Hints:
The complex is a heterotetramer of chains A (about 325), B (about 525), C (about 300) and D (about 325). With about 325 residues, chain A is mainly alpha-helical. Chain A is built from 14 helices and 4 strands. Helices cover about 75% and strands about 0% of the residues of chain A. The longest helix of chain A is centred in the last third of the chain and has 27 residues, at about 205-230. Chain B is α/β, with parallel strands linked by helices and about 525 residues long. Chain B is about 35% helix and about 25% strand. Chain B contains 18 helices and 22 strands. In chain B, strands 6-7-8-3-9-10 form a 6-stranded mixed β-sheet, with helices on both faces. A 6-stranded mixed β-sheet of chain B has the order 16-19-20-13-21-22, with helices on both faces. The longest helix of chain B has 16 residues, at about 185-200. Chain B is globular and about 70 Å long. Chain D has about 325 residues and is mostly helical. Chain D has a single domain, classed as Orthogonal Bundle (ABC transporter involved in vitamin B12 uptake, BtuC). Helix content of chain D is about 70%, strand content about 5%. Chain D is built from 15 helices and 4 strands. In chain D, helix 5 crosses helix 12 (about 220-245). The longest helix of chain D has 28 residues, at about 300-330. The relative contact order of chain D is 0.18. The interface between A and B is large, with 30 and 41 residues. Bound molecules: adenosine-5'-triphosphate (ATP) (2 copies) and magnesium ion (2 copies). One adenosine-5'-triphosphate binds near residues 157, 434 and 466 of chain B.
Amino acid sequence: MTRLFASREALLAGVIALLLVLIAFRFPGFVTPANLASVFNDTAPLIILALAQMIVILTRCIDLSVAANLALTGMVAAMLNGMGVPLALILCGVVMLGAAMGAVNGLLVWKLDIPPIVVTLGTMTIYRGIIFLISDGKWINAHQMSDGFKALPRIAFLGLPMMSWIAIAITLGFAVLVGRTALGRSFFAVGGNPHAAVYTGINVGRTQFAAFVIAGAMAGLTGYLWVARYAVAYVDIAGGFELDVVAACVIGGVSIAGGMGSVGGAVLGALFLGIMKNALPVVGISPFWQLAISGAAIIIAVAFNARQGRAPGRIILKEAA
Amino acid sequence: MQPHATGAEPSAHPDPVLRLSGISKSFPGVRALSDVALELYPGQVTALIGENGAGKSTIVKILTGIYQPDAGVIEIAGVGTHFPTAQAAAKAGVTAIHQETVLFDDLSVAENIFIGHAPRGRFGLIDRAEMLRQARSLLARIGADLDPATRLRDLGIASKHLVAIARALSIDAQVVIMDEPTAALSHKEIHELYELVERLKAEGKAILFISHKFDEIFRIADRYTVFRDGQFIGAGRIADVTEGALVQMMVGRSVDQIFPKRAPQLGPVLLTVAGYSHPTEFADINFSLRQGEILGFYGLIGAGRSEFMQALFGITKPSKGACRIDDKVVVIRSTTEAVQHGIVYVPEDRGRQGAVKGLPIFQNVTLPSLGRTSRNGFLRLAEEFALAREYTQRLDLRAASLDQDVGLLSGGNQQKVVIAKWLSTKPRVIILDEPTKGIDIGSKAAVHEFMAELAGQGLAVIMVSSEIPEVLGMSDRVIVMREGRMVAELTGDAMTPEALVRAAAGIPAGVAA
Amino acid sequence: ETKRIALVVKALGIGFFEAAAKGAEEAAKELGDVEIIYTGPTDTTAEGQIEVINALIAQGVDAIAISANDPDAVAPALKKAMDRGITVISWDSGVAKDGRQMHLNPSSSPLIGNMIIKLAADNLPEGGEVAVLSATSTSTNQNTWIAEMNKVMGNYPGITVVGTVYGDDLADKSYREAQGLMQTYPNLKAIIAPTSVGIVAAAQAVTDAGKAGQINVTGLGLPSEMAGHVKSGASKSFAIWNPIDLGYAAATIAYNLSNGATAEAGGTIAMGRMGDVTLDDNLEGAMADPFVYDASNVDEFASIF
Amino acid sequence: MTPSYRVIPDRLVSPFAKALKSWESLLLIVAVAIFIANALASPYFLNAWNLSDATFNFTEKAMIAFAMAMLIIAGEIDLSVAAIIALASTMMGVAMTMGFGTPVLVLVGLGTGLACGAFNGTIVARLGLPSIVVTIGTMSLFRGISYIILGDQAFTGYPADFAWFGQGYVVWVITVELVVFAALAVAFGVLLHRTSFGRQVYVIGNNPVAAQFSGVNVARVKFILFLLTGLMAGVAAVCLTSRLGSTRPSIATGYELEVVTMVVLGGVNILGGSGTIPGVVIAAFVMGLVTFGLGLLNVPGIVMSIFIGLLLIGVIALPRLWAMRRRRA
Ligand SMILES: Nc1ncnc2c1ncn2[C@@H]1O[C@H](COP(=O)(O)OP(=O)(O)OP(=O)(O)O)[C@@H](O)[C@H]1O
Ligand SMILES: Nc1ncnc2c1ncn2[C@@H]1O[C@H](COP(=O)(O)OP(=O)(O)OP(=O)(O)O)[C@@H](O)[C@H]1O
Ligand SMILES: [Mg+2]
Ligand SMILES: [Mg+2]
């Protein structure tokens, strides 16, 4: 009973439920299933990238280039589409291109031992710059994209668009990866105690590399989804999104120091932010208040999480226990 | 007895399972090993002996694939091999309990044991149930009463060490290496470990045992190998050698192992602690301490001695109680205030709490004395060097220069830097928490000498130690703690090993200890 | 000696400004001795434009024609440019009066303000709720047009503006803001987006919500980007002036000013094939009337800009 | 005890030899190379007035970078600095509309910076939350307050003498901002490298637990560092507001990453524990030279940022690649 309550995921889920109740009070239309489905769909990219970022953070790294990676693969997807490349090939292409960009990050971290925040700060600007170079700074608009290209994330299945299903599938995939595979467990080991990981025969650098590659692949896939969904590609899409992604992870209880986090937490963290973002304009709060409120929400959530996560400590005195 | 300089043995013995020869290893600025040899035999325990920084842990790391030797040959059952990774070493049948606990706080006990080689089920996914089952049987085998599903963070330090041992045994190995395995264990667990070593011997495993404690070396080892300053000095059978001869080989000179004799000159009461209590860690600690006195604190690991000392030093806050210095009540809310009042604490966990790795030796030493080596907040380098030189040389520090990174020193030498750091502040009360843990015999004597000297100068010394000879040899008075409470205060003739063990373990008088 | 005229835009890569650059090049060809430097920051910030302006001053260009991200913040830098003998005008989105010699509005602001609400009202004979999707909250021209629109609301009884949101000229943000509008105001009948980025995003959001035909997206947009949405019914009509003409006119005015023409209240400046512009007391002038596009003519212009 | 101690030398490598082989020397070579390349690439580069204008590309960011460098060396980070500029600038605008003169405006700007720094410092140092996350939150919070106050409005019409900070010259081409920058560089250099406070910063960055166990008041030092960073953001806000002559809530967007880039390029270890102020000063010039030089060639800003990104990774990666090759050879 206390265990259930203490678990951060349950608590966060409770906060989200409370948030929904409060919103419903002001604006009942928000909590209709159709609208909640649309909020979930809107949050799908954030969920996918929060999961990707989570495994990177688990290994004591951080990937600030996810949004730039997303934008670049999105642009490439739109350009390939413009050249008439079939959608299936584009999908393979974006995942591979994203993974390749993740691999660049990973190699710099692994082989040259450069701190991940520096590597991805650098590649973040480089990837964005490359978009400008390949697109000449021009936008690719809806009318320059084929209908099939734009349709995939929108196809409805059992009442949910494909984009939501993809997010759900990826969530399940991550649950298996993180909980049941050797690689998944080694993410925790590497982040929890890199020094000890070496002694247990886990190659720290290679594990971090793997996390970056997976994160890159996810960013690549999201790049296509994003561009197809919003039907536009240009240099600045998803600008600053990397910070939302990190915020989602942290709200979800992923420890920025590595080694601690869960799939459920990351997903809930993303949903929390997604609901905040969608709900504020709906309940009629002036757009100028949005930024301050979400900032305050992040701080409160983090403070709360830290309080939850604080180790109770050993208890030596017998009767005090 | 003359030790065999070559390590070669009469043919009555079986062939070595593992033979190292001509191994050399250098780090930037340090030659950790040069041309050393080591042989391990099945069913025998070989003790590796040497001073701090002799290269013992380095050879362990070479044997487990963490470091690559610059030169030399590793042979297993007569076949040359090499270990590019830790996994390669495990596959070749070499497993180790390392000097530092190398575990993962946020994983479960079972996962800690099996990380890297977890049992697999369908689709190559980890089979959790099987992993828990195997972990349970391994823990039972070493007599550890632990739930394999517990998060490691929730365990005490001794239990963590047992997990490390279980992990080493989870690998089916011919060669088991133990690098100072008893340093963090209490009385009871040490005995269980000895039994385990006996069982492993009976199973025909070759064991490499590293320790600074001679009593245990003579108790469990069959053979010895001695290193000094990265050189091979000798090897042979324990039965053929005396303790004095081993020490001689180890330090290159004879060492007086007797605790310094002193006639304590007790001054007025300096420190009084009354009713110190913490909500969960310790309760109702009362004592007073005189100038020139050495007060020992004995207890089993986890008795709460460190917790109490850290509260006295301002790291954690007590909930109740008062502390008086020179009969004036002082409130210590932070370490800064403790230092201002002349109380200093040499921590037990030198890697985390003591040394600032990444900074040079001299900056470590002068850290708490910056007020003295600076003027109006501006640093004066020459004074810093002078201060650092004075105290490190007195402790016989082995370092290339005072500008060297502390992180590059061996464990024992790091401890010396930490002690030097506190002595340089000219404190009034010095608390030493396990001051000689992991320190070689020569330096140990130096530390003891120093403690006596400090007391002679009128300092009040508190020494936390789990080594009975040290406690008895050094202290004027001993307080025993158990489960967060003071259970005995012994002086004079009452200070016997039996009394200490009984009080610490909670065995009432009359029952056999 | 050739005149070097810098056309500084809000951000590179936006279709509208690319078209304006085409117009400026056309003017350069016509004038003969002119080199156009098409430049701007890569995101719509005033600080970025200031760095660009500093670099242009250093190169000693002859004239700067700018569409400003912030009317006040760029003014000191432009003043410095004028001090060093550079001709400075603003066009499209203006600069504070003392930071430029004149400002060229694409059209007159009252006309545009009236136009955007009229486009919405013409399709709402029974009246109803409309909302505005703007660019950044600091965008001068957007704010002026919306203010002008509010002044004439009295002429359109039955139409109520229920809210204004800001998409920051980012496609994804505009899309989400449009979604938010639809959720907040279930009876919404039209979204007015006087920005080429916002109008496309809003049309896409309306289409995705399955409300094409129910909610009319209108405002200012480029025919090439809007053609599809006009066909799908998400947008019945929209307006724009010709950005090519605008770039052409800005370049010509800059050329003339740097060749000795003067900008004074009540005076006129020649704009080549676009005729003359007359300046008001604020030293502002309007180029031409906005032009309305709908299903009947959008395809014809989609291939041009 | 034996009186004959083993003698340990103070140093094996002289500080001068160390400096020669340091990151700063490498960076200085890069800076000189970029300077020469710029001079060759554009005829407009070697002009006193143009070079003076070019300093505006980095002075304000560099002021923050000094404090940020110390914060990062101590193992923390402040991503809210740009938002602090926005809030400080907004507060100055509010004071201006209330009719206060330049001295009060400056005090308000600095005071807001200090207050924001104190807010970050309290949360991070007292509550022990990770600074990277906390300041991502305050980044939205501070700028959000600006938006609440200003909405779609702007503050303009600052007093004429207020323009001195961002547009004034001390003598000839030497701007007020450049002088402020130089003075702060010296002050921070002394603070970090010559005082016991600076030493404590390094200690905390290397091992905060050991620092506490050595009597260092870790929370206080961290709090002061956040305060300093906030103050410097306030100084930058005064300069930037004065230079722009107006305040919008979107002012200084994206500065935080440029400041961090400058600090890291300057050789500060992002993980804490090492770095120098001279390194940051050189890095500021390098970034200013790159952006200005490329600006003269009308290269778009985003392409410049590719150069900065490559520089950031390249300057760290190349020496390591070189060392790896040598080891293999
Ligand atoms: N990673 C390293 N980098 C540089 N020097 C090292 C490194 N590891 C060990 N050394 C040096 O190698 C020498 C041998 O160290 P080692 O840890 O093997 O000593 P040890 O015999 O285990 O000592 P102790 O009894 O204190 O544990 C020491 O001088 C130490 O400073
Ligand atoms: N489960 C644990 N988690 C974290 N730290 C621990 C744990 N167990 C022990 N420690 C740390 O290890 C050290 C051991 O202290 P503890 O209170 O257990 O024993 P003690 O009676 O003080 O004696 P000793 O010094 O012999 O260990 C302390 O510094 C304590 O903080
Ligand atoms: Mg060792
Ligand atoms: Mg202890």
